[in-house]
Structures are given as C-alpha cells and as structure tokens.
TrEMBL record:
Single GO MF annotation: oxidoreductase activity
Coiled coil start-end: none
Database matches in PANTHER family: DIHYDROANTICAPSIN 7-DEHYDROGENASE (PTHR43477:SF1)
Keyword Oxidoreductase: yes
Protein name, as recorded: 3-oxoacyl-ACP reductase
Amino acid sequence: MSDWVLLLGGSTGHGAATAKRLAKDGYGIIAFHFDRGEAKKIAEETIAEVDHLSEGRCHYYNTNAASEETMNTFIPQIKEITSGSPLKLLLHSIAFGTTTNFFGAKPVTQRQMDMTIHVMGNSLLYWTQKLYGEGLLANGSRIMGLTSEGNYVALEGYGPVSVAKVAMEAIIRQIGWELGEFGITANAIQAGVTPTRALTKITEGWEAWVENTKKRNPMRRTTTPEDVAGTISMLLKPEADFINCSIIYCDGGESRSGTF
C-alpha cells in the first residue's frame, strides 16, 4: 500500500480541504480539477498550499476527469508516481452538473441529464474499474464519494444532481459488495449544507438555505469542508477497515432534524 491518494475534484470546497488535510497527514496528493477563469485562480492558490503541505509530493491536473481519454492518459502516470503501489484512497468530489428543474421555463434536457449522471455518478465506476485493473486498488484501499441530503429530498433545481447522487450511492454500494472480499472498501460521505462555491451554483437562494440550515441543525451551524476532510482522514485509519457499503453522515445531525 502506498501513501498516495487520488482526488477527483481537488481544487475547491470539500476536495481542496481534503487535499490539505491528507497532505498534513503525510499522504502524497494526486488530484484532478477542471477550472477556468476566476476558479482557476482559486485552484492555483489551493495547489500552492497543498504543494507546501505535502513537501512537493503533489500532482494536480487541470482536465476533465470524467473523460475516458483522461483516464487512459493519466492512469499510467499515476502508476509511475506510486511506483506501481496501490492508492490508499480514490475520492470522487466532482461538483459539475446541470442544476435546473424537470419542468418549467428551462426543463432539463436528455443531454444535460446524461452529462450530470455521468460526471457526478457513473465516472466513479469507470475510474474504479480501470484503477483496479491496473493493480492500483488493493487490500486497504478506500473508495469514497460525496453525497448530500438531496439524494432523498426534492429541492428546487437539484433534480439532475439528485439523480446523479443516487446513482453514485448505488455504484459505491455495489463496488464495496464486489471488492470487499479483497479488502477494498467503498463508502459515501453525506455532508450537510456547506457554503461552498458549488452551493452558489445550485440556487440563487443559497443564502437562505444556509440560514435555515443553521436553525435546524442541532449544532446550530453549517457543515464545513474541514468537517468532511476530517471524516475522510479518520476513515483512512486501520480502525475503519470494516466500514463498507455505507453512507457516513457528516452533518451534525442535520439530516435528522426536519426539512428545509
């Protein structure tokens, strides 16, 4: 087992916080992001910090991680970076999809649905298949994806992402079921409402979401990316070897405390 982790989406939000936390924990960071414009500047700041924290054991690639061409191109490079040793973690933290309703003025199209489900759900399966085939996932490796309360609650503009999250949860459950006998576990982390750049893209009323969340959350605050990063860090420890095919809640009890 190597001390390298692979993050799909590691430049902002949960992915960035996880990269920083795991770099502090001593892991080397391999990450993909797909940023342009202002987001690219934010990504560059994250990369510089992760590079410092990891003492140079940091490889970031600004390209579409959901593309099969990207997988085929970079997996050999990943194998070279780890010297062929399996990754400790494959984290799916890609927050890119269509946020719109199924009906109304701009109903979601088939192309938008297909893209969202592939990028935010199915792509985790294809990465896992290819990495496993190359021996980059083995006994002790963890596979994780980020989900949300929107996986079972209908929300304004969240329909396509909700479908993608449900698909990802099913993929994670099946991966853990099939690969568990080899010591490879797969789990989803369900974060609470988190004020990240991705949240602002879901609805113009995101600020109201944040305020309502603070009122209904038992701990009277929103989830932070650092909360999620800490949970992921904890789940990499040997004590978590038997946690598999599960949804791990990191929301302060928010999902058990009423509706939006």
